[in-house]
Amino acid sequence: MSDGYLDLNWRFRESWTDMPTGRPVGSTIGSRGGIGEDGRVNTALPDDPAALLAALRPHVAHALVTTDFDGTLAPLQVDPEDSRAVPGTIEALTALTRRGATVAVVTGRDARTVVRLGGLDAVPGIVVAGVYGAETWCAGELLTPDTPAAVEALRDRLPATLADVPADPAVWVEDKRLSLVVHARKADDPVAALAAIREPVTALGEELGFEVHPGSGVLELRLPGFDKAGAIERLVADRPPSAVLYLGDDLGDLPAFAEIVRLRERGVPAWSVAVEASAVPEAVAAADVRVPDADAAVALLTALAQD
Ligand SMILES: O=P(O)(O)OC[C@H]1O[C@H](O[C@H]2O[C@H](CO)[C@@H](O)[C@H](O)[C@H]2O)[C@H](O)[C@@H](O)[C@@H]1O
């Protein structure tokens, strides 16, 4: 074996243990990159949690550790109000800040809601980039724009658009003030319910200047110009880190995963982790490393905070 490479068999290990409990926290589904011309895997791009921890640990004191909330720290729920971070989340994030890392939650939620649901105000110094980076919460202070007129217009017109379809009666609208989200998870057939509303809701959103993005059981109408790549870019610019980690699970996390690749191309050690439980194949395929569920994501963060 030459420097920088591992034997190909390394890619096909099915599980690993690195945690104090000995519980497996991740699995490999083969490598998505870093394969050299000789067919061996370049260790510069770890593709399982153990290799990721080994690569990232030396950087923790000056790292930027960023994570999504729903589906990543908190298992998906039918009702978004029921979302809670899995046990150990606050302890893991706090331990990372104590090691010197900057910890940020980068979420589609509005910042105040995710702080409340996640109990994130218990984590010293944590930054929350809410509504895909349109707002920032830190140390109890929220920086957020005024409600745009377009959101008022959308709020007025969306109910009639849904009534005209007519949408499944279990379809409902979450109002995040800076954006609206049409939820279908309460419908008997969420996929069919979303398919039925997609065209008229997209037409209305685009007419009013919104970006329309599908998510897990939802259709989001977002203010243009915000995504998780931009949010991470600003965090990196504000506090230049020695390494960056991002954990996510859904389509809204794809720009963050792409930003991780861009950082790496600029020479910043950076890695992404996808949570498989949300069953979004695009996210699983785009990340460097996969973990099975939110518990495993938090176990990874816990392990990262340990010496
Ligand atoms: O960026 P995130 O932290 O993942 O937030 C994205 C959206 O999360 C919420 O919706 C998702 O989670 C809900 C609760 O588990 C689930 O019911 C829904 O189907 C998921 O899409 C939230 O309600 C949205 O506002 C966020 O944009």
TrEMBL record:
In this entry, which stretches build a coiled coil?
A: none
One of the Pfam families matching this protein, by short name: Trehalose_PPase
Signal peptide segment = none
> Which EC number(s) are documented for this chain?
3.1.3.12
In its keyword annotation, does this UniProt entry include Magnesium? yes
> Any idea which UniProt keywords this protein has?
Hydrolase, Magnesium, Metal-binding
**Record field: catalytic activity:** alpha,alpha-trehalose 6-phosphate + H2O = alpha,alpha-trehalose + phosphate
An individual GO BP term: trehalose biosynthetic process
- Domain of life the protein comes from: Bacteria
List, in alphabetical order, the Gene Ontology terms for molecular function in this entry.
metal ion binding; trehalose-phosphatase activity
Q: In which pathway does it act?
A: Glycan biosynthesis; trehalose biosynthesis
Q: What class of enzyme is it?
A: hydrolase
| Cofactor requirement | Mg(2+)
Please give the Gene3D superfamilies that the UniProt record associates with this protein: HAD superfamily/HAD-like (3.40.50.1000), Trehalose-6-phosphate phosphatase related protein, domain 2 (3.30.70.1020)
Task: Describe the task this protein carries out.
Answer: Removes the phosphate from trehalose 6-phosphate to produce free trehalose.
What the record says about family reads: Belongs to the trehalose phosphatase family.
Protein name in the entry = Trehalose 6-phosphate phosphatase
